[in-house]
Design a protein that fits this description.
The chain is 43% helix and 17% strand. The protein has 12 helices and 11 strands. Helix 3 crosses helix 4, helix 5 packs across helix 7 and helix 8 crosses helix 9. The radius of gyration is 23 Å and the shape is globular. The N terminus is likely disordered. Pfam families: Peptidase_S15.
């Protein structure tokens, strides 16, 4: 086991009712550990006539084992959910398989070794892929067919819940920061939040920005005290500063949201992709004069893909009442992409389901990293890790299904 893995485990995821799947080519054993084996596998989505490729981790022992399918967040994701070297789906899969749970994670359509066109795949297409993955697991002799569930991250959580509202549902669903909002509202909020982050460095997480803000505040206090200000004067000045900062942030967010809603409406109301891309690219450059024209066109083109147009009208509330299996809803309170208020929306939609569990994690962000104060240092660099509290919550809940 590598040093990084040891540190991670020490410290701190519409279709017809029947989908046929065959075992396909014989799986290839690619790695082995003391606690689980790893296979490179392929399986068919028979409805859309394409092959998906992934990694299956199976605990050591005679089995049969419970199993989960991991479903990635929106966008073109590989089987590990790779984000700048951080691989949350891989870490989650390996942890669960070390604890006696088989896990299948796979490349999205058009990514890695999976066939298909990612830009053309809608959320409902992703449901079909998830069902194909479950059906494949049910053919494996090492797996308990009645104990195959789904763990989905972000949109993948919504895919899992939607699959649970269909025939042949998963045994359970775990969502990691799933949305309860209509798609266009979530996208507007996400895109507005991206405008609010001044730094183009996406590693500047909420935790880091809070730390920088606190350091700036500490410097201001020190400067005031050095100038002879007393405690009451310092407290008054800080309260005024914080109120001003809050009001400015609210004003900027409202402006950004208004702009994003305007662009989304252009996409919704105009089916001509070329026209939409030209208008949206122009609006983006009006907002940011430093944005390269080619980059603006690329960003605008992403807003006219079949997935994007479809997701604008995607409403999780329309199917949640049909979800009957056990559900675990998880959310990090430092999530800047899917606000924690989405939990209440999901709970409302699932109110007829008596087997719903909800848990929030302090200091955990959208990709379920542990608070940065708990990141280990490996070879002189801090390494982001999956929150071990979240890992253990998922593990223990799945074991009970």
């Amino acid at each position: 086991m590598s040093v990084f893995r040891s540190v991670v485990l020490g410290g701190w995821l519409m279709l017809t009712s029947v989908m046929q799947a065959t075992a396909g080519p014989k799986p290839v054993l690619i790695t082995q550990s003391a606690l689980y084996g790893t296979e490179e596998v392929t399986f068919p989505n028979a409805i859309d006539k394409l092959q998906l490729a992934g990694t299956l981790t199976i605990p050591q022992g005679s089995g049969p084992f419970p199993a989960v399918v991991l479903i990635s967040d929106m966008g073109a994701q590989n089987r590990d959910g790779n984000v700048r070297g951080y691989q949350p789906l891989r870490l989650l899969a390996e942890h669960l398989s070390e604890q006696g749970i088989a896990v299948l994670r796979f490349d999205d359509r058009g990514v890695g070794k999976s066939e298909g066109d990612n830009n053309a795949a809608t959320t409902l297409d992703r449901v079909k892929d998830a069902q194909a993955a479950m059906q494949y697991l049910r053919t494996r002799p090492e797996i308990v067919a009645a104990r195959v569930g789904i763990i989905g991250h972000g949109e993948g959580g919504n895919v899992g819940l939607l699959a649970a509202a269909q025939p042949l549902p998963p045994a359970y669903v775990v969502t990691l920061a799933a949305s309860g909002q209509v798609g266009r509202e979530l996208l507007a909020t996400q895109q507005a939040a991206q405008r609010m982050v001044a730094s183009a460095d996406t590693s500047q997480t909420l935790g880091k920005r809070r730390l920088k803000a606190q350091q700036a505040l500490d410097q201001q206090v020190a400067s005031m005290r050095a100038s002879g200000a007393n405690a009451a004067q310092v407290e008054t000045a800080l309260a005024k500063y914080q109120l001003t900062q809050k009001m400015e942030a609210q004003t900027a967010l409202a402006k950004a949201l208004s702009r994003e809603h305007a662009m989304l409406e252009i996409v919704r109301q105009n089916p001509d992709n070329a026209q939409v891309q030209a208008i949206v690219a122009n609006m983006m450059r009006q907002d940011n004069a430093d944005l390269d024209p080619a980059q603006a066109r690329t960003l605008a083109a992403r807003r006219t893909t079949p997935w994007y147009r479809n997701y604008l009208g995607f409403d999780p509330q329309q199917y949640l009442s049909n979800v009957k299996c056990p559900v675990l809803l998880l959310q990090g309170l430092d999530d800047e992409e899917v606000a924690p208020t989405n939990l209440a929306l999901l709970e409302k939609g699932l109110k007829a389901n008596r087997t719903v569990t909800v848990q929030k994690f302090e200091g955990v962000n959208h990709v379920f990293q542990a608070p940065e104060a708990h990141w280990p240092t490996v070879e002189g660099k801090t390494q982001p890790i999956f929150s071990y509290i979240a890992l253990s919550t998922i593990r223990e809940w799945v074991r009970q299904r």
